[in-house]
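re: ur question from yesterday

yeah so i grabbed the chain u mentioned. its 44 aa long if i counted rite. heres the sequnce exactly as i have it in my notes:
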Amino acid sequence: LPLHYTPILTSEMTLHFTARYRAISENMTPGRIHSEVWFTLVYP
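ran it thru and got these structure tokens back, copy pasting raw so excuse formatting
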């Protein structure tokens, strides 16, 4: 189990996520970006 978790006690739940981009290079060029996020939802 993770260190922190919240049990789901209802049949519906909204999950809120936030994200920030981090520069991994000194040289950056403005433009469009694309990202994907993968996560695992564990339930019995």
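noticed a couple things. The chain is about 0% helix and 0% strand. also The chain has a mean pLDDT of 82.
anyway ttyl
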